[in-house]
């Protein structure tokens, strides 16, 4: 049921743009637009500027593939981190969770996704070649696969494990202390620290 | 649990700004930010521009208080609309719904909210004086109160009814009753009681 009313163009355009956010349908988008325009103009301006700045200033770190302002992010440039261990995660949120466990001092690689054959997301989409080059820098000795313990995360870990071992690298997986079927982002930091300590080679 | 990881500033700022959207917590905001930056840069640009344009180009119509690009919106300037009837709604979405019924050819006034004493939203916040001036233009004969049939909407309608009648205007309310196309067996008893009380001779 499309509104036959001549809504002003800028309002229509804003509702359309808000609908591109994940999980936002037309009703939510309309509610968000009304809220911003009626009650939070400064929030609308702030969001508009934050989007422009993020698009302009963020790129992928050349080493870990995470979001970064610099060519190489502060974590990857930190000489105090152990360059012989590389932890592979699906998203920056997962990296945050591992970091907050204070159980890890190595480096990271952020896949920005996971293999999902049913959604048509394969190894090319995730640029596994970049990860293989990164892991083959001569410094990395061990790769810890910290993808989620979901079906897709396990598939991704299994697939990467084969590729990385073929390069002569030692590969491990977070210990099964993490409840099966759960996403790392929602697991408490203590469990993650324990699972890091108990990691097994695969 | 704040992320101790040095997230890049533009990413942090974007997540903060997305949190100002109604119904969006920190996890949703982060997911939205990742999605836009990783999978939909053009969506991020589109939303940024739509927000800037909406803030710049939209204002409240001087007559109906709805969002408008012009001083007076196209609906209020339309000479084919019946200027003797004014329909009062809570939001532009409600106006859209009434318009889509094709049962109304009069004009509108959009409250952009409703009385909600528990949230501290009173008559001043909704600028009822503007509505009273609009309804007192000498052309309006009847005001139809089409606020929602919720506790707040009913309170608002009752309050406005007194004010408008004191100005000598004829005031009506949308009829309550059994929804068109519904079976009595599945209609709640309160609605049936109302429909009985408000029964009309045929
Ligand atoms: Zn990096
Ligand atoms: Zn208007």
From TrEMBL, chains A, B:
Where do the zinc-finger regions (C4-type) map?
A: 61-76
One example of the protein's molecular function in GO is:
DNA binding
| Family matches, as PROSITE patterns | TOPRIM
Which InterPro entries is this protein grouped with?
A: DNA_Rcmb_RecR, Rcmb_RecR, Rcmb_RecR_Znf, TOPRIM_dom, TOPRIM_RecR
Question: Where does the Toprim domain lie?
Answer: 84-179
Sorted alphabetically, the Gene Ontology BP terms of this entry are: DNA recombination; DNA repair
The alphabetized UniProt keywords are: DNA damage, DNA recombination, DNA repair, Metal-binding, Zinc, Zinc-finger
Entry similarity comment: Belongs to the RecR family.
Q: Which NCBIfam families match?
A: recR
| Record function comment | May play a role in DNA repair. It seems to be involved in an RecBC-independent recombinational process of DNA repair. It may act with RecF and RecO.
User: What is the protein name stated in its UniProt record?
Assistant: Recombination protein RecR
Gene symbol? Answer: recR
């Amino acid at each position: 049921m499309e509104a036959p009313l001549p809504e002003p163009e800028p309002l229509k355009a804003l509702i359309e743009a808000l609908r591109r956010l994940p999980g936002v349908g037309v009703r939510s988008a309309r509610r968000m637009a009304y809220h911003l325009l009626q009650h939070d103009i400064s929030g609308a301006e702030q969001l508009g500027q934050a989007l422009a700045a993020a698009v302009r200033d963020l790129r992928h770190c050349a080493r870990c593939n995470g979001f970064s302002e610099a060519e190489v992010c502060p974590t990857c440039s930190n000489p105090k981190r152990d360059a012989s261990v590389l932890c592979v995660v699906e998203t920056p949120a997962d990296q945050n969770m591992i970091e907050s466990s204070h159980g890890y001092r190595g480096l990271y690689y952020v896949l920005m996704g996971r293999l999902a054959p049913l959604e048509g997301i394969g190894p090319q989409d995730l640029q596994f070649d970049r990860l293989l080059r990164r892991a083959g820098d001569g410094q990395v000795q061990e790769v810890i696969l910290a993808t989620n313990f979901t079906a897709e995360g396990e598939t991704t870990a299994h697939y990467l494990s084969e590729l990385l071992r073929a390069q002569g690298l030692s590969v491990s997986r977070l210990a099964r202390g993490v409840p099966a079927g759960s996403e790392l982002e929602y697991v408490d930091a203590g469990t993650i620290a324990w699972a890091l300590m108990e990691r097994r080679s695969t």
